[in-house]
Amino acid sequence: DTAVSQTPKYLVTQMGNDKSIKCEQNLGHDTMYWYKQDSKKFLKIMFSYNNKELIINETVPNRFSPKSPDKAHLNLHINSLELGDSAVYFCASSQGVLSGNTIYFGEGSWLTVV
Amino acid sequence: EDQVTQSPEALRLQEGESSSLNCSYTVSGLRGLFWYRQDPGKGPEFLFTLYSAGEEKEKERLKATLTKKESFLHITAPKPEDSATYLCAVQAPGYSSASKIIFGSGTRLSIRP
Fold first, then answer.
1. pLDDT digits (tens, 9 = 90+) for A50-77
2. For residue range A5-47, what is the model confidence (pLDDT) as tens digits?
3. Residue B81, Cβ density class (10 Å: 0-12 exposed, 13-18 middle, ≥19 buried)
4. Domain of residue A27, residue span
5. Given this model, what pLDDT does residue B14 score?
6. Into how many domains does chain A fold?
7. Which of the listed CATH numbers 3.30.750.24, 2.50.20.10, 1.10.1200.10, 2.60.40.10 matches domain B3-112?
8. A91 partner at 20 to 30 Å CA-CA among A71, A101, B16, B110?
9. Closest partner CB to B99 (pick from A56, A106, A108)
10. Closest approach of chain B CAs to the CA of A61, in angstroms?
């Protein structure tokens, strides 16, 4: 069983479109995240939810909107896609937000905007 | 500014040739240092967490060590299946602990048979 699963794995879309990436975790964790990995392989946090409550919102354009229907799911919706949004988006989860809690990642969603 | 720097960017070794990867960090009040392995087309896979200087952890051919300024990932007698990108991340104090996890850009390790 996949612990953190996200769909779709690959997404190619045109500029200006709206798209969503879905994420589910079956680890029973309270906290979920969206990370973006750029072409230089740096992983940067975008959002974090703890028990369905938004606790981290880094400097991300308003076109990106996370939604957490329950603590096992965290979806990412992107409006008006731009070329610069092309990247790999990773969903992740951890047990709470305390220091040192291990973060477990999904397989990634490769977004290409053309 | 909190920062994580990994070196080298890429490392090619012969099978059985031991070596070390470096992760240097500048952060006030380290809460934890993490090592992850990332295979092409996959998400990062957790390896180790280190909390304080002097701590060491081992898993198969890998051993992670921590000082006040850097961490090393030692790989002993590597095999081709150890080829991957190894990511280091540090957790610093922030308004929420989860917010201040900073990743390095990784070391691409390639082991030739």
1. 888 887 777 789 999 999 999 899 999 9
2. 999 999 999 999 999 999 999 999 988 999 999 887 789 889 8
3. exposed
4. 4-113
5. 97
6. 1
7. 2.60.40.10
8. B110
9. A56
10. 17
